[in-house]
Predict the structure.
Amino acid sequence: MDVPVYPGYPPLNSTDANADIADPLVRFAHIEALAARGLLEFAIIDPGSVNFTLATTTSDAKPAGTYMNPESHVRHALDLAARHGLHPAYAIYEPGFMRAGAALARAAGIRAPVYRLMFCNLFAVGFPPRPYALSAYLSLLEEEAPGAPWMIAGVSADIRPLIGETVRRGGHIRVGLEDAPLGIKTSRRETSVGIALSLGLALCFYFVTVLANTLKSRPYLYPEAILWSPNLFFELLGLWLLWRVARA
């Protein structure tokens, strides 16, 4: 079994218009560096922008942010993929992402993109994980990019009801910490819980990175193994949480 490992890139939100990452050269600099070293097979590109409105939003709620991927950024990332011979990996949050991504891929003359069909419950984005939604996406994919590889994924959504049909139709399954609620119940405390978990994850990875860098002059302590230990730990944690959800 192959396990593709690839980096993401910093999200550009509507409140970050003046941030450094508004420059695609800055936003994708780490992707460029890794590709130049021959360490990537995929180039993650989200070919569109979207408002992450909560499905349970209220009249007095703070307006949701906009996750932005201007076409100039998409074209820059596709040019990077073309120069390094990478497959673009598209996250398809809306049907328009698929149409725009396919059109831009044809224009760039790049290798076939991988289409990751995103299903959402927590956010009022795209489709919920329903059979009609999978059929609609695949009908559009057949028109825009016949024969392209594809997979299903979720954002705090249970995609298990779609797995059988996905496998039957030749698709793949993306699973991970983003795909299911993992037993964390949705409530008004959700934002606070999410922030705390994110900070905890970031601090854990930062600490391990610093530790591995400190030990790089002592190869007998295997600093490269220490650097990868959080990935193994959180993969096992994710499997355990998914097991809990399956039993619930």
